[in-house]
Queue: 2 jobs
Job 1
Amino acid sequence: MFEGAKTGRKVSKSVFKKEEQQLRTLLLNKQFELKKAKIPLIVIVAGMEGAGKSEVVNRLDEWLDSSGIQVHAFWDPSDEERDRPRYWRFWRTMPPKGQIAILFGGWYMQPIEQRYFNQCDDSALERELRRIRDFERMLVEDGTLVVKFWYHLDEATQRERLKERAQHSENARWKMLPTKKSHVEEHYDKFEHVAEQVVRHTDSYHAPWNVVEATDENYGQLTTGKILLQIIEQRLNAVGDDPKGAGGYPMGDIDLPDDPDARLTVLDNLDMSASIKKDDYNKQLKSLQTELHELVWLAYNQRRSVVMAFEGVDAGGKGGAIRRCTEAIDARLYRTISVGAPTDEEHAHHYLWRFWRHIPRDGYMTIFDRSWYGRVLVERVEGFTPASRWRPAYMEINNFEEQLSEHGVIVLKFWLQITKEEQLERFQSRQDTPYKAHKITEEDWRNREKWDDYCMAVNDMVKHTSTEQAPWHLIPGNDKRYARIEVLSTVVNTLRRALNGSSGRK
Amino acid sequence: MFEGAKTGRKVSKSVFKKEEQQLRTLLLNKQFELKKAKIPLIVIVAGMEGAGKSEVVNRLDEWLDSSGIQVHAFWDPSDEERDRPRYWRFWRTMPPKGQIAILFGGWYMQPIEQRYFNQCDDSALERELRRIRDFERMLVEDGTLVVKFWYHLDEATQRERLKERAQHSENARWKMLPTKKSHVEEHYDKFEHVAEQVVRHTDSYHAPWNVVEATDENYGQLTTGKILLQIIEQRLNAVGDDPKGAGGYPMGDIDLPDDPDARLTVLDNLDMSASIKKDDYNKQLKSLQTELHELVWLAYNQRRSVVMAFEGVDAGGKGGAIRRCTEAIDARLYRTISVGAPTDEEHAHHYLWRFWRHIPRDGYMTIFDRSWYGRVLVERVEGFTPASRWRPAYMEINNFEEQLSEHGVIVLKFWLQITKEEQLERFQSRQDTPYKAHKITEEDWRNREKWDDYCMAVNDMVKHTSTEQAPWHLIPGNDKRYARIEVLSTVVNTLRRALNGSSGRK
């Protein structure tokens, strides 16, 4: 889930200084209002080792009035704590009404570490996740505002950070659990795997995660402060006493720092100049299509079904890419579902219902041209659906795809990206070509105006829904041929791996 | 959890006929209003084999306008269904807005049966329970009203029902899965055990269970209709579009049928005439206290802690019973916490916080004179806490006690009952005795007026919170000596069993 938190976002010193001043004042005001409104606030600061969690906590402590704050870390339990049910130590730290508790790792680090070190099995972890969700829900229903931050950073940065700390060990050693250091360093992937499981299953309606990129401390801290401010404001403005109406996530777009580098997205990391020569294209196309043809029959014989979702910017080349796949597949084995406005019947149901309908039988394939991700893309950006409804869709979608995977469905998700300039060209060319003119509408031009909003939405989408069993594939599509080969080879590779296929290639 | 659904409640034919007429008209009206309001309704009818589930469904179908209802049973999955992820079959049955779906067993029967037949392990069950909760929450957040009924009956009645059915097999066989009949008949306890696990963990904020006693069909059906009516009315009257504000349980007292037998509670089954001779009392008291003394030291040495909660009607003899225990225990090993109005500090926290504080260290004992059950007793009956807050407390309390048990804490819960006449005598005697007069207040007289409401609240409490790891012990207390011996011997037996104690007795 964490790809969207590895974009390289950062904030310059000068922007940080300027925005920090303003933020501090606002945060302090809100803290007093929270106190007056008697709302207890729990802030959970969790994340990767080396992500600067203690620096974040120190910063919050500096920004806020420390008389109303208690900071708690949960190191090895004391005698007192070991002698009682596990959650006793957390109950001890509950802030009274109007106060703030900042919890280092909260109730998350123990299950993550135990699973990571194989000290507990999946069954114990499942039970623990249920417990966490019940516990947080109970606090939220009681009026507590629970805000959870997960700080993430890429492997290279983590290694560097930990090395640096080890060198300055005199004053930095206390930041790490020494026995665990080498493990974490060496086993980034394993830790991330466990963390994804835990974060994904506790990204709940009432206490969702705010995943923050932590490669740059300025960015991480400023964003934390801004998100926190936004959430507190929402809560103070919530009508009536329904705390659910203003949960632990920003209901609107996040007010990112005013620095272009703070607005980078996963799409900025794509090499948009990628291209392929025509000859190579023709050769590869033929070979990939041949293999795809065989693999889809293999899937049929193995009774494995395939679900593909194609998303992308308008005129990004979804249609062309889909056709290059379907050309190679026996027409009896696949269906393409073009997702437009819902029918009356579909509209009368939950938004996922229309997609469940088209889940293929074992051995068959459904290709969705646009998909359930509309919920967190167009519906979000265009404001068709309030944040209180689209934000939980990340979890709903993860659960949906998890069910597909568990049944053995192979899930493939593509995002086709083109540059804004390329899109303009394509729009104009479509308008000028009689048989293509119908493909370009007022709506396309309107969407284009919200280009940046869509990029942000895509980033959040990838951050929350790119899972191990159903990762996002982001395809640079300025060169149509390149994009098609990328899509085809991803499909072929995924199927081959999933079917353990012996279709002649390796 | 199901003791509260084995009280022998029933409704006479004449009352049934009279109330049915009225109920039908009201239900039908509400159905049309639901349709107009475009609210989809899912009714889950689940429960013990032989509890008359199909009769309930038939009745609802008769009462309501069948054009807006679809009934679905989930027998063995079809080819179509087996070929897709498991929930596909449930998605097929989702009612569109304004329509009603009645689901036989819903998504519950499969996990219960699989666990019952050992076809899945606890880990798979935990995952399934998480899935169910996520699924229901998603539907509820989307505006669906989810109402769940669990029909329960005692073992003897079940055996009789199943025998009867077998005899009239020509027209009744279809009601049972034939291969399972014998199992269910023979293994009532095992089935109930699994059912308790599933029901307890899915008794959620958003879609709680309505447990209905099903020994008498008239009672079961009438009560179902009345609960359903009440829930639909609530939902239609809910302000704004917050569906959570009117969840799948009646927010006020249930409008029970107007038949005294329909209002029986677990307390009515107590033998209030039970008594013990003075000589026997003295002998037993001494012997039990001696053993208790030893057992508490044994618990200390085994580092097992004990939590006891005493509840009961005013002047029911809690104090006396507690003293007979504590007299026998080394003063260093126990604490008694008398639970009155919360302190300022306690008031500024979640209601469970004040009890967590006093959870003893391993090896020690805490005795609560009144407890966390105040939430669902006095706070409910006196209206201090709205139903939207006290109703979820059943689940919250079960989770709390589950955590205690998991840590190894021995949990004991007592309800001390006396008759209304006996209470009057004790009140008067207290008023007349100078050194006891302070024990009787205006509040006690006020509570007395709500006698029946408290009985109902106790019944619901037992129904939802008497679990295998922390069962309720209901003690008839008209004879103080009898009650004290009962309490002491329950404590001694429980400790002996838990500690596998060899304190000389069996």
Job 2
Amino acid sequence: MDQTLLMLPGPTNVSNRVLQAISKNVVNHRSAIFGEILTETSQLMSKVFKTNNQSYLLTGSGTAAMEAAIANILNPNDKVLNVISGKFGERLRDITNVFGGNSVALNIEWGDCAKPEDIKEELEKNEDIRAVTVVHNETSTGVAAPIKKIGKVLKDYDTLYVVDTVSSLGGDHVDVDKYGIDICFTGSQKCLAAPPGMAAVTVSDDGWKVIDNVKSSTYYLDLKKYRKYGVGTPPETPYTPSVTLIYGLYEALKIIEEEGLDARIKRHEKAAKATREAAKALGLKLFPKEEISSATVTAINMPDGMSDSELRGTMRNEYKVELAGGQDHLKGNVFRIGHMGNITYKELAITFSALEMTLKKLGFDVDLGSGVAEVSKVFI
Amino acid sequence: MDQTLLMLPGPTNVSNRVLQAISKNVVNHRSAIFGEILTETSQLMSKVFKTNNQSYLLTGSGTAAMEAAIANILNPNDKVLNVISGKFGERLRDITNVFGGNSVALNIEWGDCAKPEDIKEELEKNEDIRAVTVVHNETSTGVAAPIKKIGKVLKDYDTLYVVDTVSSLGGDHVDVDKYGIDICFTGSQKCLAAPPGMAAVTVSDDGWKVIDNVKSSTYYLDLKKYRKYGVGTPPETPYTPSVTLIYGLYEALKIIEEEGLDARIKRHEKAAKATREAAKALGLKLFPKEEISSATVTAINMPDGMSDSELRGTMRNEYKVELAGGQDHLKGNVFRIGHMGNITYKELAITFSALEMTLKKLGFDVDLGSGVAEVSKVFI
């Protein structure tokens, strides 16, 4: 129990079962045995994406998957509508620019989220948008975008729908085929609760049509190669993958299958609600409006007169609970509680118990136990 | 003992100590504790590279490091001299082309290696070569290139020296600073004997001068970002790294430090010699000439009338020893024994015992024990 509890929007706490899985012996990545593991892991991944498309496993961070999603679909100067309401929306814009795309930015104030009608307006203004990028769950602001509704709008346009579900998949509703998502990607260390270092991407038939007409501008993340090697005998990746992390991802996906995806999402929604109620009971103010707030991470305004190092430093050093700070211009203005992966009432009880003590220690007027009580009310 | 023995040119057998290290709990990748691990691992990495330059850890395959080495130094149409004597030399050429470079290929027959004077000749013919790429240890052919001598030639030219030591670092002589290497990179799963999925790259001052004048054509592998985050407080990587695999790499590098780099290289040289002597004693023919053969992988001609699936299939299925086949046009014509990482006489005794039985079973005339005897003669 003395181990630091990670309440971050990734990496999240990894279960012993997964830690045991990754410590198995490494096998030949070009063997039939590994081909089976790769195939099964990809299939489990597609189930979580809710897609009939093939999922490809990339050895790299979530940012590698972002790069794969963009670099493979762009010829020079292709227009991309980047919906930007936080740091990861900005990152997709930056990647678009690095790979020679022509970024049309739909900028939304941090803490708010894209409205489907705003996206429709941009598509009407610009006829030749090759792709629209949306971050489902903006961890920097704790806001979830309405990707289902946006998908409905995009069905009337000849454009690819690219959705970043790095910090939502496995913790919030994502239905790749039903929402009409062409390219969807995620990371291992968020709601899937595997160690960091793997990413996954899935591509629709329309996505492949575009990719097949694009000159590759990435070698390591060239999805055409992943497709080719993926149907080999045995199925392989083009370059040596992290066999070890794929063991971990496989085990994490088996755990998700056992829990059931719907039950898992409900658990995340409960954890989010409990976090919001508990924060409010302690007199704290939520950063985004509740109706658009994320199921996997909650951003909370820093109390007046309190510094980030005081609040998060005390939480970490005195109580061994690691929270996330604000990013970029939100640094010092918000702190964030990640409740993704394996989080239950237990971790939230610890977190709010620690937060209550921290706030009290720092001179803030709180009733000890009042936050934890709200957690219990949600989970009882 | 019933576990399959990997005698591949990567991934290699990972020690229990490293497997235990990777199963430790994941910590926050933006914490002071992780900053220390990152710093120490980078420092240990630089010691193995024998450089005073900073080493950067990339979450990805060796191919990610190849891409980082090329994509960061090229403006469109910059000339690169790609020395090609096998599959990985070809890969560096392909990456050069993908990133808009103008590849000048010095093609050498597979099984042979570049002569410094040939490289000199190319540099005299082409004044504006921005970089020369050399694969130190061409795993596809089992040949080591004379990177020290090539470095001496390159000192007279204003060009970057880019050396792929993916399958040699930690098993053969690499002295980045002394050889004048500007960009050197490696992978975790070869001679370092960590699990696959991490790569490392080191850059000289001259290398940085070039990188600072190049427009980034990669986002995930943009080395300028790695440099910036690497000197942060705490030191970080720009994107979530594989905390887990860095634990493993750290432990693997500590093991190398304990063994001593010189002793480790001597052990690899012994293993290579033992492998060659044993193969010859069994009547097998080495693919490359002995004087240029690799310290970490030995390529052997497939005996006449024997198929790859017979030889390697029997080794794998009957005797649980995994060897590598030939790549591209060498498929079916050679097989390869990797002897990198933690290999001692024990693994070679198993391998040659298995190979003797396999050959005999397949109707080849061998004296059982005659290969193993040669291994013992080298290691006694």
